[in-house]
Amino acid sequence: MGGFSSHPLQNFNRLSSVLERTPPELLSEIFLWTLPLTREAARRAKFHATDSPWVLTHVNRRWRAIAISNPSLLSLVTIKYLPSSNPTFSFPLLMVGTQIARARQLRIHFHGCETADSLPKIAVFQCLAAHASRWEELCLLLTSQRVPLLAGLRDRVPLLQRLLIEWDQPKSQAGMESIDCFETAPSLVDAGVSNTFRSIPFRVPVQQLTRYQFDGPWEMHRRILLQVAPSLIEARIIISFDNDPWPNPDGSGIIDLTSLRRLCVTHPDILNYIRTPRLEEIAVHFAKEEEKALPTYFVSILSRSRCPLRKLCLVGEPAAHPTADILRNIPSIVELSIIISPRAADTAVDAFISHFASSQAASLPFPSWLPTCVRFFSDAEVKNTSSTHFIWLW
Fold it and tell me: Which top-level group of life is the source organism from (predicted)?
């Protein structure tokens, strides 16, 4: 189409001419690339007509017709209420209803706020719930006003595949003994709950899950993992609300996770209780006092599993020496990531460089990839990133 000139208006007219000649099917595909990432959309605390996909309907008649005819453009519904916002104007009920009417399948991200006016929020959630049969994904930040509405979802989510439940404040959990409205969801394969303030039983069809992200005491995890073991591919096992002593690990208490490929644990002791013959990626959170024992934990699971581990992520403040021991014991690793607090990052990086340099000078065995494939990230950077490299860790 020729080169662009230095005059902005000429460039705009030329680009507009090209887009006008673009087939509707291709333009519709281009529109999909203008959508914000899910994490970015979920951070927005107000509806904006200038955001994609809404802005596409205001360019001209052709664009409007193409945008409206593509229901995939409107499948993601993100609602986020803040204490300082006016729920009535932040996400107008009319606009939410319009989006739902034009969409086909729905991915719902609803972040409630315990202190914001409840009536507009309830009205919006009821509008969404009226179309629960089209939900494929549901991520909820629950409040006490929203909890009573969950019971009405039982047996009404036939397409729901992904579910994540979190809580806004401690009082959001008041009076809640369990959540069981999703235990009959026939398509659910990815489920997670972050109780944060108080452990609440969360019942889902665990026998069909392929991805698991729960927090709770080890005994709760053990019971669930025994049921979900054959199908599980990814797991994030978060230990919390756990005051009971763990049993001694022995052969009879080992859980076989035969299909597991990716694992994140917040307590390295978990590695003593599982067998993972297909594990390829692992992330381990650890406390400072657990640092020296880290190589022992990895020896335990690897000797039991004989797995093809290729990616390792350490979350904490690992010292260079135990990390080097882990790498020597697992020559199959091709990528090492270390997630660390910013205050400790500089010291840790210097220590690693010094240790690995001295090891190479002494001709100690290290993988040839080591100097270029060790990556450091701050914990804040990981939590805020939209990269799929880290999403499964948090």
Answer: Eukaryota
pLDDT digits (tens, 9 = 90+) for 204-234: 999 999 999 999 999 999 999 988 878 999 9
User: Tokens standing for 342?
Assistant: 């910013």
Rounded to whole angstroms, the Cα distance separating 126 from 78 reads 15
For residue 84, what are its two tokens? 């300082």
Cβ contacts of 352 within 8 Å, gap of 6 or more: 320, 323, 338, 374
pLDDT in tens, 84-96: 777 777 888 998 9
Q: How many domains does the chain have?
A: 2
Do 162 and 248 have their domain in common?
A: no
Largest CA distance in the chain: 75
Name the phi and psi angles at 131, rounded to 5: -115, 30
The contacts of residue 378 (CB under 8 Å, 6+ apart) are 339, 340, 341, 342, 345
Q: Are residues 370 and 242 part of one domain?
A: yes
Are residues 251 and 103 part of one domain? no
Residues 84 and 125 placed together within one structural domain of the fold: yes
Measured CA to CA, the distance from residue 132 to residue 135 in angstroms comes to 5
In a domain, 141, yes or no: yes
- Torsions phi, psi of 216, nearest 5? 160, 180
Residues 6+ apart with CB under 8 A from 296: none
pTM, 2 dp: 0.83
What is the domain range of residue 346? 205-394
Same domain, 271 and 310: yes
Please say whether the dihedral angle defined by the alpha carbons of residues 359, 360, 362 and 363, taken in this order, is positive or negative: positive
Task: Tell me the Ramachandran region of residue 249: left when phi exceeds 0, alpha when psi lies from -120 to 50, beta otherwise.
Answer: beta
**pLDDT tens digits, one per residue of 233-282:** 999 999 998 888 888 877 668 999 999 999 999 999 999 999 999 999 99
Residue 197, in any domain of the structure: no
Q: pLDDT tens digits for 288-343? A: 888 888 899 999 999 999 998 999 998 887 777 888 888 888 888 888 888 877 76
